[in-house]
Amino acid sequence: MSLSFHLGALRSHVLCSVFCRPVSLCNQRPLVSFCFDDFPRTAYTVGGTILKSFGVHGTFYAAPRLIDTTNGLGDQLTRDDIDSLLTDGHELGCQTFSHLSYRALPLSTFELEVLKGRKFLRELTGYDPCNFAYPQGHVSLRCKRRLGPQMSSSRGTCSGINIQIADLNLLRANSLYGDLDQMDRIESLLSHNVSGHGWLIFYTHDVRRNHSPFGCTPALLDGTLLLAMKKGCRIASIKEAISTHEIPETPQRRAANVYDRAISGPGSA
User: Fold this and answer.
1) Out of 156, 184, 228, 262, which residue is the most buried by the measure of CB atoms under 10 Å away?
2) From CA 244, how far away is CA 90, in angstroms rounded?
3) What pLDDT score was predicted for residue 17?
4) Measuring CA to CA, how many Å separate 266 from each of 54, 225, 260, 261, 263?
5) Parallel, antiparallel, or unpaired for β 74-75 and 70-71?
6) Share of the chain residues as helix, strand and coil, in percent rounded to the nearest 5
7) Using CA atoms, how far apart are residues 146 and 63, in angstroms rounded to an integer?
C-alpha cells in the first residue's frame, strides 16, 4: 500500500484517539443509522421516502445557505423539505451555515459558522439541530476539542464501526455510495456490526438512479436497509441512537471542558 494510504490511516487513528467524549454502548440490539449530508432534495424525497416505507428515521444534516440552490448533487433542500422531514419524524442535523470546511477559515470563524447554522435552523423550525457533521468530513484536533462539547454529537467520515464505546466528539461513519455492486462491502460491515453488537453509521448525499460520485441509487439504500433489518439491527437516527444510552456529564468532564475553553481563547489551538 502507498505511503499516502498509511499516513491517512495514521491521521484517522490520531483523530479518533484524542479529545474524545466516550459513551459506553449498551445496545440490546446492534444499531444502524443512515445520514444524508448537505442535503440534496433527493436525500429526502427519495431517501426519506424509502426510510419511511420501513417505518424508520434518518438524520439529515443541513447547511441553511444551500436552501433553494442547485449544485453537482442536484437541487438542494427547500424549506418545505425541512418541514416535511420533521413531520415524518426524521432528524434535522447541523452542518454549518454555509457548508464551509474548517480548512478555509480560522477556528474561531468556523466555530461561529457552526453555531450560526444551528441557531438559524432552530429559529426557522423550533427544532434544535444539536447533532453536527463536519462539511466534507474535514476535522482537526483543534476543531474536535473546541466544538465537541458544544454539540450532542459530531460526525466525520472516519470509517469503522462504533463498538463498545462511541466517541461523541467524532462518531465513526462509512460511505454509502454507488449501486448494488457495493452490497458485498455493506454485508461485511453489517456482519461485523452484528458480531460486535455495535453502532454502524452510513452517510450519503443524493439518492437517485443517476447519482453523483457522493450519492447512491435507491436500490442500494433499499437493499442496505432490508439487509440490516434481516440481520436484526435496529435502525435509528443519530438522535434516537444517542437517546438509548445514558450520557451523564461528570464534574471532571465539565471542569475539563471549561478549562479547555479558558486556556484556548478565540482562535487559538
Assistant:
1) 228
2) 16
3) 86
4) 45, 43, 11, 9, 10
5) antiparallel
6) 45, 15, 35
7) 20
The three-state secondary structure class of 203 is strand
Provide the 10 A C-beta neighbour count for residue 251.
8
Summarize pLDDT for 192-249 with one digit per residue, the tens. 999 999 999 999 999 999 999 999 999 999 999 999 999 999 999 999 999 876 544 4
The region that residue 65 occupies, defined by phi over 0 for left and psi between -120 and 50 for alpha, beta otherwise, is: alpha
Residue 238 and residue 130: Cα distance in Å, rounded? Answer: 10
Query: Rounded to 10 degrees, what is the CA torsion of 167, 57, 83, 177?
Result: 70
Task: Note the pLDDT of residue 4.
Answer: 55
State the virtual CA torsion across 195, 199, 205, 210 in degrees, nearest 10: 20
Provide the 3-class DSSP secondary structure of residue 55: coil
Amino acid at 29: R
pTM over 0.85: yes
User: Strand 131-133 relative to strand 153-155: parallel, antiparallel, unpaired?
Assistant: parallel
Exposed/middle/buried for 123, CB within 10 Å: 0-12, 13-18, 19+?
A: exposed
The label of the residue with cell 480548512 reads 103
Domains of the chain: 18-245 (3.20.20.370)
CB 172 within 8 A of CB 16: yes
263 burial type by CB count under 10 A (0-12 exposed, 13-18 middle, 19+ buried)? exposed
**Triad 161, 167, 173: Cα angle to 5°:** 35
| Residue 31 cell numbers, joined | 444499531
